[in-house]
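Much of the work behind modern protein science is quiet bookkeeping, done one molecule at a time. The fold becomes a row of whole numbers, each drawn from a learned catalogue of backbone shapes. The protein below has been through that process, and both of its lines are reproduced in full.
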Amino acid sequence: MTIGLRNTAAETQIEIPSDGHVVALSDHAHVYRGKLRSPDALKRHKAGAARLRPDGGFDLRLYHHTTMAAKIAIESSGEVRGSAWNFQGNKRLANCSYAYFTSLPSVATEADLHRIAMASDGKLPLRLDQSLDHAPPDVELEVYRESTRNRDQTLWLWVPAEHVSPSHIFVHPRFTLEYEVAQPFIYRVGLKPDGAYRFSRDSASPDQPDLKRFDYVILGDASSPDGLVAPYDEENTAHTFEIQDLGPETVHSFWLSHGNQQLFSGGVEKQQFAQE
């Protein structure tokens, strides 16, 4: 299996051999050992850090930026409390909460605020695929109004990758379909309503009684205004990807054994929003 990845910095090919399977994780993710080819040195394009665990999984080094008072309370309690707000910061969730993290080591500029779906004026500019570079934004999305002064204290943790909720996705319907991770600098850990994410020193606890996962992500069409908004709004979209549980199979064996089968059920639990 060969996967092509492309961004403005480097074009990369990843080869995943059928015998490269390492481990299946609790969130239905699978870790593979493969080959990576790129004409560029990828290290200079990386964001964040990770460490390999003895079980074959990975821990991510993630940051929680807040105020001094909140940081002291978090460190003394040994837990990050879940937030009931959606990505856009304007709707409350009813059946879950999220502990919010980022791979950014600091939030020091307006651009940093935009990367974590916040803005000092409460507006996030978004542009459609077909719009020219440097054109005015096609959508000014209302997001959480915030100042960098309220994000000047930092707590960082090693977080198991399987604790992190899967990212929503933008689709770019060009000559071929291209997919992009939406909000790539935001990492959320899904929790039960009013849940807490526990840690000790610099590492999240392996056992998290409040952990909650959803087996789908939102697919936003980057060529339409509604599609641009969908991964932030999270409620008003009919386009989703379901996450397939492969059971005891690998990606290769599942693909061979389930060819030309309808796998999308539409019956997965989805986020519910509080009625204001």
